[in-house]
Amino acid sequence: MTDITPEQTGSGRSQSTTELVQKSLARRNRKQMVLQGYGIAAIVFALSMLVILVGSLVITGYPAFTQTHVELEVFVDPEEVDPENLARGSYDEMIAVSLGEYFPDIDMTDRVAAREVTQLLSSGAQLLLRERVIANPSLIGETITLKVPASDNYDQLNKGLVMRDTPEQFRRVDNAAIERFDTLDEAGVISTPLNTRLITNADSRFPELAGLKGAIIGSFWALLTCFVISFPIGIGAAIYLEEFAPKNKLSDIIEININNLAAVPSVVFGLLALAVFLGWFGMPRSAPLVGGLTLALMTLPTIIIATRAALKAVPPSIREAALGVGASKQQVVFHHVLPLAMPGILTGTIIGLAQALGETAPLLLIGMNAFITSAPSGPFDSATALPTQIFIWADSPERGFVSRTSAAILVLLTFLITMNAIAIYFRQKFERKW
Amino acid sequence: MNDMRKIERDAKMAETKITARNVNVFYGETHAIRDVNVDIADKTVTAFIGPSGCGKSTFLRCINRMNDTIDICRVTGDIQLDGTDIYATSVDPVQLRAQVGMVFQKPNPFPKSIYDNVAYGPRIHGLARTKSDMDEIVERALRRGAIWDEVKDRLDQPGTGLSGGQQQRLCIARAVATEPEVLLMDEPCSALDPIATAQVEELIDELRQDYSVVIVTHSMQQAARVSQKTAFFHLGHLVEFNDTDEIFTNPKDPRTESYITGRIG
Questions:
Q1: What is the DSSP string of chain B?
Q2: Which member of A324, A327, A340 has the closest CB to residue B101?
Q3: Does domain A213-430 have CATH number 3.40.30.10?
Q4: Chain B residue numbers touching A336 (CB-CB < 8 A)
Q5: Which of A196, A233, A343, A384 lies 20 to 30 angstroms, CA to CA, from A94?
Q6: Confidence of residue B14 (pLDDT cuts 50, 70, 90)
């Protein structure tokens, strides 16, 4: 095999290998550069889209994180309060009187004129006063300082979202109203503190009072139900399919179907839940429990697929080691394989739950987009969820809901990013190198 | 091959521990083992040698029914351990594997502490009643694995943190912790350096005092160094089975001769 002469090596070619490689090298390098260029362009495109998305949300949403308030000195008139039933009382009158002091030239006894003035404040102002008095009846007869939210239009005016240079007929706030607002502003009673009601209040018809408490608690109960149902069932199914099920046609069909199930549009699960949970089983409408069950149906395939992948990633040498010392199959799985697969399973589960948290369509079908002004006290109470609350607010005509919709999306994104961060943490912390 | 280190050979035939008759193994359509008949003696090291894919590992895994875990694998014939058919329906593979320990090619300690690695087998079989019983079992196993002195101060550290050779000796300690009667070793030194290999080989020779050891090896020198009996496998057939000395100095079958002189394999 060593008797090839140098002439024979180059037979049929007029150029040496080195020359040929050099010729093609430029072309090959160019191709690689082009490919890298495409990659960088795709990433830049994706990143800029993300920046535009989050940027526009922040720009529209940030006014909702503050709320214009008016500080009033309110005299709680004993004559206006029913001492037997503190809930009954002309609290609106007291507020009107207190506000009227800033406008001496307006006759507050004239209902129409008074209404013009009190429109400055949120319709919830009297409720705030009532709550204060009910909580502490000793306030009757006293003058108290009460900070009440301004109504939506004035809030928008204060935040500069209603332009003063717009012609009056196109403006939501007329000139007289602007004058009244400025009077209060000069008196130094207008302030714009952090809008804690966005988190501590449930939904309301009035944007200045509307908050996400009901939606957050509703989402919490729904996710808890979803987790409690889908985590054990998903892991159980995955363990059986991966470790115990005989490999035959039937298990192949089941596997294909589970993979397909993960791709079924969520609205279909909503319809299924509507027919089965609400229709047949007569479960309560709008309840987070039903929402959670529906989301569990959707999360199951994700958890099963993630768990199977995590189980498969446990090296066979560990199984053999355990079998070799006489562990039964069940002991191999529960003593060795499952603990080693747990980080992967948890990561998959958290990502599945994050997906469920953002899911809207199935919740719309089971009525979790109802207008509910109190936070649910349990999984059986009617409630909304974060994505459906966003849906409701996005549909509302009041100007104040525009910024609140964006703010709610930011809150939802915060939850999602937190959950994904936890998943990444688990993956990094427990990642094993074999 | 005549300058091999000679270990004192048991001239007297020890009593037979494992008897295999007409063993055939199929992987789906592939006929991996063909009509193997062999008698493996107690308190002896038996080496299986042969070229890659000859079926020696497959046959080894029949002895503790490790092949059961492979769906498409089918075993026919008769394998007896102390006169009991290990493939009988009355024999549970779990029970069998407690009697027939196994050490694998790649060291595979559990990602647990050194102590828990050794204690796992005795624990699941309920061999220790108290903590001190277990401590004793673990110490005895680690001593028998010739690793006690190296790890006695760090039993709570992960077994995966040991060096390759230490890991393999830990795996041997884990295998002997359940007091098996037979110890199967599937190329136990192929992932080890020469020094670790020498340590493990020395250990195998000591283990012969208590167990019937069956070792699969790619290295003919290793077979010659550690074993008293050698079986040569080729293309699924057991070609020749005899005293190690005989196999290496006076092979009967031309295929054996070709293999040990390096012409096939």
A1: -TTPPPPPP--SPPPEEEEEEEEEEEETTEEEEEEEEEEEETT-EEEEE-STTSSHHHHHHHHTTGGGGSTTEEEEEEEEETTEETTSTT--HHHHHHHEEEE-SS----SSBHHHHHHHHHHHHT--SSHHHHHHHHHHHHHHTT-HHHHTT-TTSBGGGS-HHHHHHHHHHHHHTT--SEEEEESTTTTS-HHHHHHHHHHHHHHTTTSEEEEE-S-HHHHHHH-SEEEEEETTEEEEEEEHHHHHHS-SSHHHHHHHTTS--
A2: A324
A3: no
A4: 110
A5: A196
A6: low
